[in-house]
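Lecture 7 notes: from sequence to structure.

We start with a single chain of 374 residues. Read the sequence below before looking at the structure.
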Amino acid sequence: MNKKGSIPELAIVFMFLALVTYGLVQAHSWRTAEGFEPKTLGDIQLATLRTYQQGEETLFYIDQVALYSAYAAFTQLALHGGFVAPSCGKEQNYNLWATSEKKLDECFPQYKENAVDLFKKTFDAFVAKAPDSVRLLSLDKSIRSDMYSISVYGDTVTGTTSQSKLFSESINKKSVEYAANPSFEVSTGYNLNDYEVLKKQANNITRLCSGLACIKEQLQKFSGWSRNNACDFSNFIACFGVTSEAQFPFYGQLAYKFALFIDFPAVEITSVTKRGAENIYVVEFVPSRKSDVEKYVVLISAPDGNALSVSFNKEDFIIKSGLMLNEMELEVGKCHDYSTKVYCVMPFTTVRDDISFTIHSENNEGRLSGNGNE
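Now the structure, written as tokens:
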């Protein structure tokens, strides 16, 4: 027989007997102390595991709520051009980053603060919808965004709180407790600093461009940019969509929407003359001298909403010089080009004193410049 192997075997037997003896003593003391009598040995340990599991399930759910709240908040923020509420107005549901009165720096959204605001609203909405199987129900829905200090840095959203949550289970007048801190830190894979890149690109457009050809040229330089025809340049506003490389589960690819005022050179109307006997209007304006002008469009409008648009193409222009307006033989439907002034002649059927005129120039891609009033 191997005597070396018998010593460890005997030690194991003695250790087992000692543990059994200790368990019996403890069971006897639990039965006699303060009426505490578990049905089986190990109930305390099982209760501890259950409370720990409850806490960890809740913490896991909070992490998931935070992650999907970030996905939802960042998606909505981009679709609204970085705004919760627009500070400079909107055009066709595109929030403006620049207007005729305010430049890009004045209108550009406070996107980080807005992201946190949207995150909080989404977080609270998700918690309110927590299923009963999640132990948030036992917390009386007390997890809420205002108990956190929330920050966004890089691609990480962090929520810290000093308010721990207590999970407990009672066994015959005894309570097993587990305290868990519901702070979270989740990574979305998306960086809010993309807004700064978009701002620089938008600044190039507003600074360099005075027409559609330039805008088209700039968009070819930028990844993901496109111009949306929802804005027809009637107010010198261009609408843009930018597709991000970021993709979120359930929400898909991130896409930005916003609009920019483009400072086209105005076509200045200097006078409008009615010639009642001839049933014509003569619109006098200072023409655009851009080389790619193909036509002028005159819009006649009235306060009651009635409007008429009249286009004058290149072939409608008659080059003239030397004569005064009252000496002209004006041809209806034509524009008489005197180099420094142009006179476009339009027929009318109803004489009204409350109508107004606006005019803009176009090339073969669309509007170049606008407007004047008389």
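The domain at 268-369 is CATH 2.60.40.10 (Immunoglobulin-like). Keep this in mind for problem set 3.
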